[in-house]
Amino acid sequence: MKVIEVENLTKRFGSFTAVDNISFSVERGEIFGFLGANGAGKTTAMKMLCGLLRPSGGRGIVSGFDINRESEKIKASIGYMSQKFALYEDLKVWENIRLYAGIYGVPEKEATERSHTLLEELGLEKERNSLVKSLPLGWRQKLAFSVSIFHKPTIVFLDEPTGGVDPVTRRQFWEMIYKAAASGITVFVTTHYMDEAEYCNRVSIMVDGRIDALSSPASLKKEFEAESMDEVFRKLARKSKNGEL
Amino acid sequence: MRSFRIFVQKEFFHIMRDRWTTLILLVLPILMIILFGFGITTEIRNTKFAVYDPSGDYTTRGIVNKLESSEYFTLERYIDSEDEIERLFRRGETGFAIVFGDNRILLIADGTDPNTASVLTNYATALINSYLQESAVRQVGGGAATDVAGDPPVASATAAAHRTITPEIRLLYNPSLKSAYNIVPGIMGMILMLICAMMTSVSIAREKELGTMEVLLVSPMKPFLIILSKIVPYFTISVINYITILLLSVFVLKVPIAGSLILLSGLSLLFIFVSLLLGILISSVVDKQITALLISGMMLMMPAVFLSGLMFPIESMPEVLQWLSHILPVKWFIIAVRSVMVKGLGISSILQEVSILIGMGIIILIISIKKFKYRLE
After folding, report:
1. Helices H, strands E: what count in chain A?
2. Beta bridge partners of B51
3. Is the pLDDT reported for residue B277 higher than 70?
């Protein structure tokens, strides 16, 4: 079953075409890596999928809803974790969880029960009443991810979720992503770390608003005769006119 | 509704967890009332004055008594020659002097501070005139009594009072010339604007800056509700501040509410709404807290202090600035509050100000709805 299906999706800002006629689809439970240099258009594409930006052209279905007409329904069925840290630092751990549970309409009783299990799993039981700003960055990031899938969305969009996190935490973070995918949540992730791209089931690489490559990491490496995803990425990005390296 | 409730709660947490913000929000109005009400005052009290009175007759002593019994003047001492006056002024022992001569009274004040000097001379002139009038009235009532007494200076002074037309000064609404009457409406305007416009714009800009706004916009929560829940806490605080200011001004500054309390409250609510909308408008054009702070500080607070007539009379400003002051909501609010609170006027006399405020509110609302980028561009 496909949870994201996009055809000829385009976004223009004036004369500048940020996203140029892209088409792809993502299967349920897949970990889909969305790669590209800064300015390649991946954030714009992702915002259209989340219902934050209206496309200039093309069609798209996200978790069964039309991105042109049903952006409000899409919002209720997806999770989102942004590049910037997304929890409120001056709220307590459990207050943050309750806030997002409330926004996404998770019933109060269920939210309380699940927040207990969640904190237990994260080993944050003792920090329930601590302010988020007192937690180390890695923990906050893991908590932010857990909060973004707290309402059991069909898809979770992660915009560079591991920026500024140490390698050990990144490893743990990816374990959480695998676990989420195994439970049926589709993971749509952008990243700058090419080693993380290797963890994805499939990877798309955007250059100048177009998707220049889309396949599993293994077949991409074969196709571009590269040792690593890093090499694949550099070979592709070299063709870019306006992206930076 | 539940998400709205939780969201409003979150906004209160933001404010209360930041102890300094809470303190400033709640203590600022009290501080300003006390500072402006007692510290910074344009009235003059207990100015020491010297008297040169070679004749020392009934009238001149009466005038000196009259001056001394007022709260504005305190008699420093009698001096023996006119030359001494300058020495007294130089040493700063006195700020005011009266010299009685034949058929003339010379009032001397320190002109280095023109405002104080003119206020002092005005007070003194008013007091002297009223004394002369009183004694004239007394004389008419007492028949030929003074003629019998045959005191020439008194006779000449009263005769002068009879002959010339003496202007009598009567200050309406604020007979005792208390500056608090002028200051309370001003402070009310400034505080409400500060809390509503500045704090709201900063708090929305904060979410944008931290990136949490992005997360909220991706959520199913309606942008309208996000903004509304941001407004609720500041609205509550504004109402608390409004009540604090009123209580302080009535019971501490002794400024009575001459008009209807309901009308005054309605007027303040209207102004609170306009200021909140202004805050939303600012936050819809900026992305950083510091920009929001600067814009609301520089573009709202500074002109509010200078152009609203709080400190300087608008009438004496250059025409360009007067014209500029018209676009400030706070100016109209202050005028209307003065009318209701100090003059005790009814709704019919503040219709102009009220309709201007309502008009401004509608314009700001339209612009901010158009500007509000609920889909992050």
Report:
1. 9, 10
2. B78, B98
3. yes
φ, ψ (nearest 5 deg) of residue B56: 60, 35
Domains in chain B with CATH codes? 2-40+178-371 (no CATH), 47-163 (3.40.1710)
Alpha carbons B232 and B227: distance in angstroms, whole number:
9
Interface membership of B19 toward A (CB under 8 Å)? no
Angle at B180 between CA B178 and CA B183, to 5 degrees: 135
8 Å CB contact of B218 and A98 = no
Tokens of B50: 């010297």
Residue labelled with tokens 């992050």: B376
Contacts of A103 in chain B (CB under 8 A): 3, 6-7, 216, 219-221
Q: For an interface test with B, give the residue of A46, A48, A52, A148 to mutate (most B CBs within 10 A).
A: A52
In this predicted structure, the answer to whether residue A39 has a pLDDT above a threshold of 90 is no
Per-residue model confidence (pLDDT) at position B165: 57
- CB contacts of A88 in chain B (<8 Å) are 10, 14, 212
Helix (H) or strand (E) holding A102: helix A93-103
**pLDDT, tens only, A73-131:** 999 999 998 777 678 989 999 999 999 999 998 998 999 999 999 999 888 889 999 99
Does the predicted TM-score (pTM) go above 0.80? no
* Structure tokens that stand for A183 in this block: 């439970």
Say whether pLDDT at B251 is over 50.
Answer: yes
